[in-house]
Amino acid sequence: DARVWFTFDDSRKAELLLNQSNERTDEVMAMLRAGKPIPGNVLSALRERNARAVRILEDHPDELALLARVREQSAEQEDLLLVLWGDLAESARDDYAEVVATLHNVQLRTSGTPGSVSPDDLAAGVIHISGSAELAAEGVWLLGGVEVRIDLRTRGDNELEPGQMVRVVAARGSDGRLLALEVTAVSDGPPDQQYIVSGTLEDVGDGEVVIAGQRIAITARTLLKLRLQRGQQVEIRVDDIDGQAVASSVEGSAGDTDEAASALLAYEGIIEGAVSTDEVRNDWVVGGQQFTVTPSTEIDARGGVLAEGARARMEAVVEDGDVIAKRVVIIADAEDAGEDIVRIEGVLEAGDDESWTVSGIEVVAPAEAETPEVGSLVTLEGRLIDDHLVLEKLVTTFTPGRSGLALIRGTIRRIEESGAWQIGLLRVEIPDETVVLGEPQVGSRVFIWGSRDDEGALQAVYVNILTRTTVVPPASDE
Questions:
Q1: Residues pairing with 389 in the sheet
Q2: N or C: the chain end with fewer CB closer than 10 Å?
Q3: Rounded Cα distance, 254 and 316, in Å
Q4: Domain segments of the chain: what residues?
């Protein structure tokens, strides 16, 4: 009888600890919504409760339901923390490494998988990268040219085939080496139904928001990194769930306030010099412009190898004078990079006959181009001459109406007879005057700047298609 009561007490303790761990997760989510940095003491409390629960349950292997719960809960908490490096208080980074290592090891221990991850493996944060997997040595793979260790400690699809497209979240150790914590195979099937929309929140309702004219559901599983308000500049990652647009995450623009935040900058050019992913912050030069790559930067190397000479598209925001890369997309390998053309897409924030400020960076105004209205979308082309960027052409200028501009990134799901495209669940009209770089096909990955017309339809202004086979450049600057 005493043994039965002891088991009951231990099980109840483990359950209580897991409940308290969930409360700490709720605390993290509340801080994110309020725009507050996550302190180390909350992470430490979460780690300590999970670790104590596992120690109790290891003495009671017959508690299968609780063991399954701690494993699943730890996986969900790790998934959350792996996208929150940029939201930490700087003093919390050691606690972050400790808690992510603990959560990962809980899953290994409760599933009987050998090995463990140490906090030192996470000392320099994490990296998010997708690309083609090529075997470099036993247990070591190159993903878009970046060396990553993938072994039994890696969750997900860790038995890879050479040439397979994968998405990886990797821990970066104090020595700069990368260890994959999670691998997801990218399907060769129908086009990816997830898409990303950046723009102005047109409306905020009960459990939903409206952006670019589309209603998007906000659920209990949506990762909210701000308190939603109409008129905010946000980026929403959208999933197609049974035909409904559901936000998997919502985050705001850079800066402490909307007024302080520069608009998103898209910049395409050739990577100059060596490319490193070893440090917490790495400086890369693309098309003559320096970018800072952080653990929050998403690296998409599906289009080629991340290396000097490759053509890359950088999506960035300016923070305190630094150009911080939010997303890096490799468009072509060095041998296929083509002409050394620089393309800039962004919002004109200031300008005169001599210089323009486009989404936070200052450029020399293109010759013989009239300065557009402040707030206009501008797309520019130029090239580096003697290490100086010379802008030769104002490709597009567009002054949006009250609905503002939206930037959509995704895959063409369908091309209608009318010429409109469907990106995920979003329908985009392509008027004759739209500037389109590349040849659209179902399955093509696209970047679309658009705005709603008077009837509410989303119309493309400028379209950039990856893996471009041709260039279709209407000459109009209208």
A1: 384
A2: N
A3: 10
A4: 2-120, 126-185, 204-252+401-465, 266-375
d(C-alpha 275, C-alpha 6), whole Å: 57
Tell me the DSSP string of 275-296: ----SSSEEEEETTEEEEEEEE
Q: How confident is the model at residue 5 (pLDDT cuts 50, 70, 90)?
A: very low
Q: Report d(CA 341, CA 471) in Å as an integer.
A: 13
Under a CB-based contact definition with an 8 Å cutoff, are residues 355 and 362 in contact? yes
Kindly tell me the sign of the dihedral angle through the C-alpha atoms of 215, 221, 225, 227.
positive
From 2.40.50.320, 3.90.1150.10, 3.10.105.10, 3.40.50.2000, which CATH number describes the 204-252+401-465 domain? 2.40.50.320
Q: Which of 357, 400, 403 is nearest to 380 (CA)?
A: 357
**In percent, how much of the chain has pLDDT > 90?**
78
Distance CA 370, CA 354 (A): 11
Output the CA–CA distances (angstroms, integers) from residue 471 to 279, 359, 463, 468, in the order listed: 37, 25, 11, 7
Of residues 369, 363, 432, 357, the one with CA closest to residue 395: 369
Distance CA 273, CA 285 (A): 7
CA distance 152 to 139: 9
**CA pair distance 358, 371, nearest whole angstrom:** 12
Range 266-375 has CATH code 3.10.560.10: no
pLDDT tens digits, 10-38: 888 999 999 999 999 999 999 999 989 99
3-state secondary structure (DSSP) of residue 465: strand
User: d(Cα 213, Cα 202) in Å, to the nearest integer?
Assistant: 8
CA dist 93 and 243 (Å) reads 39
What tokens does 446 get?
């696209």
What does each C-alpha distance from 415 to 102, 372, 424, 429, 449 come to in angstroms?
47, 32, 12, 10, 17
* Contact (Cβ atoms closer than 8 angstroms) between residue 298 and residue 326: yes
Structure tokens given for 168: 């990886």
For 206-265, what is each residue's pLDDT tens digit?
A: 999 999 999 999 998 999 999 999 999 999 999 999 999 999 999 986 544 444 456 899
- Let me know if the fold of 126-185 is the same as that of 266-375: yes
- Token code pair at residue 42: 């909350």
User: By CB neighbour count within 10 A (0-12 exposed, 13-18 middle, 19+ buried), where does 115 fall?
Assistant: exposed
Please give the sequence-ordered ranges of beta strands (E in DSSP) within 218-321, or none if there are none: 223-224, 233-241, 244-252, 265-272, 282-286, 289-301, 311-319
**CA separation for the pair 66, 86 (Å, rounded):** 32
Return the amino acid letter for 333.
D
pTM, entire model: 0.88
Class of domain 126-185: mainly beta
